[in-house]
Design goal:
Elements: H1 2-13, H2 31-49
Length: 50
């Protein structure tokens, strides 16, 4: 019973994963659109580093 209680407490303390990198992706889009968005973001970051 102690293990179940501890597991419940651990789950309650976990933070939700951040989704900031998907803010500009439209709701309901598919995997391909998400991949394209992330690829474009990565490319723009690489260009700004140069």
């Amino acid at each position: 019973m102690t293990n179940a209680h501890q597991t419940h407490d651990d789950d309650a303390e976990r933070e939700e994963p951040t989704t900031d990198h998907l803010d500009n992706v439209e709701d309901g889009c598919g995997c391909t659109e998400i991949w394209e968005h992330m690829s474009e973001e990565r490319d723009s970051e690489s260009a700004s580093d140069d």
